[in-house]
Amino acid sequence: MGLTQPVARSTLADANERRDWRIYAEFAQRLIVRARALYAADSFRVELAHTDYALDATTIDLCLSVFPWAKFRTAKAAVKLHTLLDLRGSIPSFIHISDGKLHEVNVLDLLLPEAGAS
């Protein structure tokens, strides 16, 4: 990249703090589209006529004293990772990180369904 010396961690942290998160979200979506295209024709021991998805959510416990913005219970902090998995290639097609209180059924409102998917 033409850098003559290592980049300080604080410089990277400052740059990431100023950068809009949507840049990373768009980049991730483009990578997902490319990965799905690479694995679209592969057989995964499951014969599916259409694109099928599975929605899963995982609660990630955090330390309340370190992450006070992620209050989940009285003495706990957490975030929730919601993942929509394309069963034909085991590639996530949607990932959403929310506070720990968002129920999985409410994530369905955030999804844009693909035509013909079940």
The mean pLDDT is 82
Strand percentage lies at 25-35%
First-residue to last-residue Cα separation:
45 Å
Q: What general outline do the C-alpha atoms trace?
A: flat
**Unreliable stretches, pLDDT < 50, 5 or more residues?**
none
Gyration radius, in Å: 19 Å
Largest sheet: 4 strands, antiparallel
> How many strands appear in the DSSP assignment?
4
Q: What structural class should be given to the helix and strand makeup? A: alpha+beta
Q: Give the helices and strands as they follow along the chain.
A: HHEEEEH
Fraction of residues in H or I helices: 25-40%
Number of helices: 3
Blueprint of the fold:
Blueprint (H helix, E strand, L loop, with lengths): L8 H10 L2 H19 L13 E10 L8 E3 L2 E11 L4 E9 L4 H4 L11
Antiparallel strand pairs: 1-3, 2-3, 3-4
Question: How is this structure best described in words?
Answer:
The chain is α+β, with helices and mostly antiparallel strands and 118 residues long. The protein is built from three helices and four strands, in the order H-H-E-E-E-E-H. It has helices at residues 9-18, 21-39, 104-107, and strands spanning 53-62, 71-73, 76-86, 91-99. Strands 1, 2, 3 and 4 form a four-stranded antiparallel β-sheet that branches. Strand 2 and strand 3 (76-86) form a beta hairpin. The chain is flat, with a radius of gyration of 19 Å.
Can I get a quick summary?
This protein has 118 residues and is of the alpha+beta class. 28% of the residues lie in helices and 28% in strands. It is flat.
